[in-house]
Here is the input.
Amino acid sequence: EGFDFNYRQQTRDDVQRTSYKYTVGNTLLQFGMGKGFEFYGSIPIQIITDTTIKDRTGQDSSTHSSTGDARFGIQYNFLGNSGGPYYLSGSVDGLYSSWNNDRTRLPFFGSTLSDTNNTTDNRGRRDRNRNSDNWGGGVSLQAAADVGWGTRIGIDSGLLVGHPDCYCGGCCCCVCFDNRFNVTKTFGDKWALEATVDTTFSTARRSEVQANVLGGVRWTPTPRLGICVGPTCNLTQSGDNIGAFLQVSYQFALNK
Here is the structure.
């Protein structure tokens, strides 16, 4: 995923929060180990987030940048193949958060403990709807199948235990359970409609039950280049926000 742009706006308790997030060079390395095993590792090279918080007293804006969070793990394929009509696989997953240049964390592990940035503005107002994490580890199960008429459904469920970034000075930990359901409808060789519902529950402090809904149109002009654009909606116990995204990705194989 070479470039990703995400816009979100949320109003809660008379406070409006608007964020623009740019992800550049989100790399994913997959390495076959033989006998159904595969190693994967991913880290965004650069994440830039512009945040504006506005209330009755005025507004504040801030910009944060980081190298993103490292994601890594080993996946085992039980049935089929991810490029075939069906597959079933499981993985052992890990997460390690990196520091930003301004000592503020920007989590980037969308399917588990973290979502968007959890920062304070210069009035000390904190987005209480997000939790950030230092590190974590867990297991997940992935499956997908073609059901006919150019339609493919998939599910990804994961359980992660992590150390939250709560600054309590103790050795606390949290548990996060995540489910992601995806439907893709293809039209010919280059066009597809995608819809994803992602639900997350975490025991970490400042966390809430979350549901993310994402829909988009994907254009694949070449087998390696993909462009996807669409709306997003994030629902939580205390409020919800809407947004939009644009993704540009390029894939290549090192052994070819």
